[in-house]
Amino acid sequence: MMRLSSRAWSRAESCCQFMPVVINTFLVLAITAEVMYLVVVEAPREPGEQHGEWSAVWKATHIASQLFMLGNIMWNARLFLKRSPSIRGVFLEGAGFGQGWKYCYSCETHIPPRCSHCSDCKACVLRRDHHCVFFGQCVGFQNYRYFLSCLLYMSAGLLYAVVLNSEVFMLVLQEGLTLHSTMLLLMPWIMLLIGQVTPRAFIFAFIADTCVVGCLCVSAFLLFHVTLMLRGQTTREWYSSRRPYSLGWRRNVCECLGQRWYLAWLCPLIPSPLPGDGIHFQVTAPLAETPSTAAPGPPTN
Ligand SMILES: [Zn+2]
Ligand SMILES: [Zn+2]
């Protein structure tokens, strides 16, 4: 009986691991389908443009750009999950333990600098940044490029959805930017409950709001990670004012996006080998805080 319940529990646990990926995939596909509907059915809005040549070019351009963003999001997410940054399968014993190496009691092995244990992944992760709850996997040395590119295209896709939704929303209302339309955008649920809006306008307002919130959150997260990349830090190292692994912005970007960093963000299929191995890092300042760089203590009389 105990064996059966533990087997059921481990199966439920492994199913739950995939839940964030399933939910995220559903959200990305749902937003893309909604924007595709706007482009194909709702736009162009002017009756005279309905069957014009410009209309067909306009629609084709929008559909192509949507597919480009969707393809980038899905493929980057796929490679992010595939390129696990954990130490499983990495031969560390011959690396030669030096400064910054630690011992992980959970994995029972020595681990290199910038590597740390993740209790969710149940493994130590090379150049660990953080555990991403939306993907259910750690962000680290091998998959940081795909994580950043995914954020970039999610942010661009949501901004695109915000602009298109706002335009169609204004057209559905047919009243421009008034107090009524502003209130509807700010609190669509209340406007629906007091009967001040049609269900169709409510749906557009609700989706536009969701995209605005999503766009702000993802863009803020992207900005934070671009800053970290330029500073040569991980999220765990952000709290320290010292940057011993920073090699200058160009080499810091190269360390994250690979040798073809100027092209790597355009498509995940562009080969861009990482310069390091995730085990050894060039250091430009002492790893430990020395007494001369330590913060001065409180003055004594
Ligand atoms: Zn460990
Ligand atoms: Zn993890």
From TrEMBL:
<feature type="transmembrane region" description="Helical">
    <location>
        <begin position="201"/>
        <end position="224"/>
    </location>
</feature>
<dbReference type="GO" id="GO:0005783">
    <property type="term" value="C:endoplasmic reticulum"/>
</dbReference>
<feature type="transmembrane region" description="Helical">
    <location>
        <begin position="176"/>
        <end position="194"/>
    </location>
</feature>
<dbReference type="GO" id="GO:0019706">
    <property type="term" value="F:protein-cysteine S-palmitoyltransferase activity"/>
</dbReference>
<keyword id="KW-0012">Acyltransferase</keyword>
<dbReference type="GO" id="GO:0006612">
    <property type="term" value="P:protein targeting to membrane"/>
</dbReference>
<feature type="domain" description="Palmitoyltransferase DHHC">
    <location>
        <begin position="101"/>
        <end position="240"/>
    </location>
</feature>
<dbReference type="GO" id="GO:0016020">
    <property type="term" value="C:membrane"/>
</dbReference>
<feature type="transmembrane region" description="Helical">
    <location>
        <begin position="60"/>
        <end position="81"/>
    </location>
</feature>
<dbReference type="Pfam" id="PF01529">
    <property type="entry name" value="DHHC"/>
</dbReference>
<keyword id="KW-1133">Transmembrane helix</keyword>
<feature type="transmembrane region" description="Helical">
    <location>
        <begin position="146"/>
        <end position="164"/>
    </location>
</feature>
<dbReference type="InterPro" id="IPR001594">
    <property type="entry name" value="Palmitoyltrfase_DHHC"/>
</dbReference>
<protein>
    <recommendedName>
        <fullName>Palmitoyltransferase</fullName>
        <ecNumber>2.3.1.225</ecNumber>
    </recommendedName>
</protein>
<keyword id="KW-0808">Transferase</keyword>
<keyword id="KW-0472">Membrane</keyword>
<comment type="similarity">
    <text>Belongs to the DHHC palmitoyltransferase family.</text>
</comment>
<feature type="transmembrane region" description="Helical">
    <location>
        <begin position="21"/>
        <end position="40"/>
    </location>
</feature>
<keyword id="KW-0812">Transmembrane</keyword>
<dbReference type="GO" id="GO:0005794">
    <property type="term" value="C:Golgi apparatus"/>
</dbReference>
<dbReference type="InterPro" id="IPR039859">
    <property type="entry name" value="PFA4/ZDH16/20/ERF2-like"/>
</dbReference>
